[in-house]
Amino acid sequence: MNILRNAMDFCIRHQKVLGYSTVSLLTAATEYIFSAVVFKCPCNSGNMLYGLSFLLAPAFILLLLGYMANARTWLLLTGKCSQEKHLQRSSGRTCACLCQLLQMTAKASVVPLTWIAVALLGVDFYECAASGSNWTAHFFCKGNIIDCQTQLLQVPCGKELPANITHERLSLKAQSQLFGWFLIAAIMTVALISICFSHCYSPVSYLHLRFWKIYSKKERELFEIKAKEHATKLAERNTNCFFEATDPTPFHTPSREDWQKISFLYSFHSQEQYYSMIHKYASTNRGKSTKFKEEGEDHAVLGFVEEA
């Protein structure tokens, strides 16, 4: 039991890393299935288009899915075009939105980059695409480029290039694997630099940041529970009123203005110690203070605490 409990605690503490690892493993497995079962290089003039479509198209689709699965995307977009003053945007808010978009892109890019890296290490997609490239033909061939290019098109189908062509040149498979490792090294380097940069410019200390993340997670969990309970009670009241032909009993539900107040992305201020818009809403007389309304007009985005 202790082993099971320790394993559960480990999974809970590192659920974000484990989640990314699981998704990456599933992406690698999917790429392997595509490469082994679906992908068949035509070995003709369509090699480059066919290879690039398998290398880049799934990555682009995964990027879009990453945006769609991120709740911040909809938090930024929902209702923005319908606001009466949607044209009155300050430069600070625009900068904050761009910063938030950059953070969302970084998270959404994890799976697409995993696909590309694994595909490069698997060599099939790159070998097919590169064999149909004019640049590759000029790189390998010095004399008769036309005949050489015809031979290059057959490489993905198992044809070996003559020794005089491959002399002192990396093979397409070697190039693909080399690019794959370079991509992985670049991703890890950028990720490490980004994490160091975000922690270096964190407005709070390390333990305070840990507490903030714990609070944000618990608040989201409780919000989901309370929202379901509240919606269930409201639905029961309205349904009973309809079927039983009775007058509805008084039932308080947040107003449209209240929902709008807690829908901003929270910005940290050193003079205040709020951890979210709901915390600020509850601590400022349900958001009725003048200070709350003024600050609500333009919220900078804090990237150190997960919003979704």
Topology, element by element:
Elements (H helix, E strand, L loop, with lengths): L1 H12 L1 H24 L8 H23 L1 H7 L13 H18 L1 H13 L1 H8 L2 H7 L4 H9 L9 H4 L5 H29 L5 H39 L11 H6 L15 H7 L6 H7 L12
Helix pairs in contact: 2-6, 3-5, 3-6, 3-7, 6-11, 8-9
Features:
CAHM6 protein, 308 residues, 69% helix, ion channel, mainly alpha, transmembrane
Description:
Belongs to the CALHM family. It is a multi-pass membrane protein. This is CAHM6 protein. It holds the Pfam family Ca_hom_mod. Keywords: Ion channel, Ion transport, Membrane, Transmembrane, Transmembrane helix, Transport. The chain is mainly α and 308 residues long. It has 2 domains: 39-75 and 91-201, no CATH class; 206-285, no CATH class. Helices cover 69% and strands 0% of the residues. It contains 15 helices and no strands. It has helices at 2-13, 15-38, 47-69, 71-77, 91-108, 110-122, 124-131, 134-140, 145-153, 163-166, 172-200, 206-244, 256-261, 277-283, 290-296. Helix 3 (47-69) packs across helix 5 (91-108), helix 3 packs across helix 7 and helix 8 (134-140) crosses helix 9. The radius of gyration is 27 Å and the shape is elongated. 17% of the residues are buried.
